Amino acid sequence: MSALWADTPFMDSGKFSGRRLHLGVSGSVACYKAVELLRAWRRLELEVTATLTAGAREFVTPLLFASLGAAHVYGEMFAPAEDVFAHLAPGQEAEAMIVAPATADVLSRLAAGAASDMLSAQALAFAGPLVVAPAMNPRMWAHPATQENVARLVARGVVMVGPDSGEAACGDQGRGRLAEPDAIFFAALRALAPQDMAGLRVMVTLGPTREPWDGVRYWSNPSSGRMGAALATCAWLRGASVTAICGPGVRMRLPEGVTRVDVTTAAQMFTAASELWPQMDMGFFSAAVADFSPERPADGGEGKFKKNGAEDGLTLTFTPNADILRTLAAARRPGQRVLGFAAEIVPDMESLLALARLKLTSKDADMVAANPVNAGHGAFGAAEASMAVVDRNGHEEIWNARSKADIAWDLCSWLLRI
Q1: Concatenated DSSP letters for 257-274?
Q2: What is the pLDDT of residues 275-324, one digit of tens each?
Q3: Which of 38, 54, 78, 247 has a 20 to 30 A CA-CA distance from 367?
Q4: Residue 392: burial class (beta carbons within 10 Å; 0-12, 13-18, 19+)
């Protein structure tokens, strides 16, 4: 799998297994990126069919798509090998249709409702969500005819992804490059996901905080932000407007539709969350916030503390940081829902469940999800985790190890029911 997907939590999700997607590929040098998309969707066990236009087949072959798992690869409208009703098949079988890359010619056909080739006929007969990712020379993209076609498609509810700006294959600079594959990947999943969080505004805190004690050293923890990234992604896929407040070093790839706010210290995270919280409907507090910060030297600690300045050892004094979860949960308005997290070292999951109950009460949360971080559990940065989950209505569950993407999905579903 390409490194592009290595930092995407939803590459480990099982929630889209068996869902059906149709991929249309038209004649652009960016065709090779459609192969990456097919592989990514197949890794999630989506059932993917594909149509390659005559132009696309000049760049890539149907055999390539078939060998990578496309259930059926369509070509010419009247090819002898095709079913006589192949132009209707995606509309009867697929749940969403993606055209990537989409050339200026394909945009024109889609906007006009043409049905003179297999791909345009399939699109015309398709009543489900349609996602289009244009790719062409920047001057072709900027032409009024292309812009009129795009406007017509958007007015009909078609989701446009990109194009991006940069250097085109021909060497021209400007907007016209195919959007990054991850943006198209996420747009397709959003088209398949239930939009049961549409209209909700969700804030997620994720990753560690770093508390400096001189100009180069800090107090922190090994959190990667993977759980929070999965939560932010899940909420966005299901229609929410999402803001992710990210601690330092969070490299997880988030959908472009998620607003990212980067902070470093616990105090900065508290300030950012406090400013956003009044406008939010839900708060997912998954960040591993440092409970304490070291006091900095009298000189402000902007330089590097020298070893010879403490030959007999070094003593640091720590002061408590604000409790973001408890403070904002106490300040919530009616209707706001709060999901808190706890990382604990415990002998067993029943003990973890008891600690989750205590945290639910002490933090005044609506739900708490607690995970063990004992040696060997690999919770920090791992793709999977075990969870003890409790809510304010007395419901409790223990989840054995599963992907953090699927944990995020199930937590969102649970919180919606409260």
Answers
A1: TSEEEE--SHHHHHHHHH
A2: 999 999 999 999 989 889 888 765 556 677 777 666 677 788 889 999 99
A3: 247
A4: middle
Measured CA to CA, the distance from residue 234 to residue 203 in angstroms comes to 12
Terminal alpha carbon distance of the chain: 38
What is the pTM assigned to this prediction? 0.90
Residues taking part in catalysis: 170
CA angle 270, 274, 279 (to 5 degrees): 145
Query: 20: how many CB neighbours lie within 10 A of its CB?
Result: 16
Dist CA 25 CA 123 (whole Å): 12
CA gap 144, 132 in Å, rounded: 18
- Residue 263, C-beta contacts closer than 8 angstroms, at least 6 positions apart: 209, 245, 246, 247, 248, 269, 272
Sheet architecture: strand order including 159-160: 73-74, 47-52, 20-25, 96-102, 130-134, 159-160
Q: Which of 324, 351, 350 is nearest to 338 (CA)?
A: 324
Tell me: cis bond preceding 163? Omega within 30 of 0 counts: yes
H runs (alpha helix) in 44-88: 62-67
DSSP 321: P
